[in-house]
Amino acid sequence: MISFNLNTTKLDILKVNRLSKSYAAHQALKEVSLSVPKQSVFGLLGPNGAGKTTLIRIITQIIEADSGEVFIDGELLNSVHVGRIGYLPEERGLYKKMKVAEQLMYLSRLKGLSASESKERIKFWLKRLNIYEWWNKNVEDLSKGMQQKIQFIATVLHEPKLIILDEPFSGFDPINANLIKEEILRLRDKGSTIIFSTHRMESVEELCDHIALINKSQKILDGSKKEIKESFRNQTFVVKHQGKLEQLSDDFSILGSSPLEEDHFTSTLKINNGSTPNSLLQELIGRVEVTAFNEKVPDINEIFIQTVESETHV
Q: Are residues 283 and 169 part of one domain?
């Protein structure tokens, strides 16, 4: 397991301590511990069946853990915290025959909002997500993307400090997915903490401040996105150049090369033996005309695949 977290502090809104859960012979979680900083976007990642949904359901008190503890704002998880959390599950659940505004009013009242406060917030969010004209329509008359917007509104309407989103971009076209991304960042900047589980690694790149990776019921990686990406740097560079590159000294390796146009190429190179980028550049200048020179830093998708595969082969 690779971890970059410091000791948990009062700046963490959520602390999970050695959480375990089994279903008959299946171990869904095994002593998982993690801390989620306040006012951050936290990516909860992992392959299907890794244990992410079980962890979320324990935090939201849908199910109980076999062992371990969960703390919200330093308090042991209890029934009071239900109203402080907004949860958008992957399995969508709206009352198809109810009108949009009626449904949102009903759900907001369940979260303790007054009728007048609910009405104002519902109007605000329907306008903000560009679906105000649908307020008097039955949910079943809405597209999948519109229904998803309604569920997102229901999740954040009571202004929870901790928002948990399971595959929040499912059913959205690129324009509306971007709209929801903007709202997630706006909610973070206003003080909320967002945990979201997704298979869309490009969303993790764009949104997350911190990530945790769960595989086979155990946490195998966590920390700030910046620190994790830094740790996976491997001295690989992508170079565009004029002239064919056929050989380098033993300090460097050519991992691949492909033509761009006549006598122009893109090559992927790796530094060996403790050499430096400057040394690589000097050697290249003696052999070809360099037009671009960039370090290839692994993205989250590459880190995800590499980490999961390495655990699988252990």
A: no
Helix%, strand%, coil% for the chain, nearest 5:
35, 30, 35
**Looking at the structure, do residues 113 and 190 belong to the same domain, yes or no?**
yes
Angle formed by the axes of helices 144-156 and 100-110, nearest 10° = 30
Q: 115-128 and 144-156 helices cross at what angle (nearest 10)?
A: 140
Q: What is the C-alpha to C-alpha distance for residues 198 and 19, in angstroms, rounded to an integer? A: 21
- Residue 269 belongs to domain spanning: 234-296
Count of domains in the chain?
2
Q: Which residues contact 271 (CB under 8 A, 6 or more apart)?
A: 235, 236, 237, 251, 252, 277, 279, 280
pLDDT digits (tens, 9 = 90+) for 249-303: 999 999 999 999 889 999 999 999 889 999 999 999 989 999 999 999 899 999 9
The total number of residues shown for the chain amounts to: 314
What digits encode the pLDDT tens for the residues 41-78?
Answer: 999 999 988 899 999 999 999 999 999 999 999 999 99
247 and 223 within one domain: no
In this predicted model, which residue has the larger pLDDT, 25 or 54? 54
DSSP 138: B
